[in-house]
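Ops channel
N.P.: pipeline sanity check, posting one input/output pair.
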């Protein structure tokens, strides 16, 4: 099973040989300084977003590989029925999210805490992942803010 940990100044997802073959890539690395939030998702399927891009997806069993969506791409190595450690990133990280399953909820919390404690500036305002931005809403909010400032 994939393991996520901090090595030096990077968050690393170490894949087994079988997982490397399924994901069609080696270990995943992202800069620790880009960590924006670390959360635990008890429901494995909630860690998934976007559409499968490269990897192996067995419905209701496991998902390993890259998923893409309008805001970027995620790397997941998750299994059905297990809690997931989710690490969100800011630019210039290669992924917006790294998500890996762990055996128990207690282990997931411990692993998330270990990563969060080593990250230089994680957002701890809420234990939940943030919703994905919707470009149409961002454009409307910007236009509304501009109209308000012009009338003031």
């Amino acid at each position: 099973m994939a393991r996520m940990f901090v090595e030096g100044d990077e968050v690393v997802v170490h894949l087994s040989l079988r997982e490397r073959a399924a994901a069609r890539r080696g270990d995943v690395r992202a800069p620790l300084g880009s960590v924006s939030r670390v959360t635990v998702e008890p429901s494995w399927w909630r860690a998934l977003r976007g559409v499968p891009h490269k990897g192996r997806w067995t419905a209701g069993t496991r998902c390993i590989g890259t998923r893409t969506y309008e805001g970027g791409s995620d790397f997941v190595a998750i299994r059905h029925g297990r809690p997931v450690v989710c690490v969100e990133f800011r630019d210039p990280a290669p992924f917006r999210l790294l998500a890996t399953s762990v055996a128990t909820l207690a282990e997931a919390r411990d692993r998330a805490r270990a990563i969060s404690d080593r990250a230089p500036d994680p957002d701890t305002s809420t234990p939940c992942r943030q919703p994905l931005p919707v470009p149409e809403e961002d454009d409307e909010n910007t236009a509304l803010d501009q109209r308000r400032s012009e009338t003031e």
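N.P.: looks fine end to end. The chain has three helices and nine strands.
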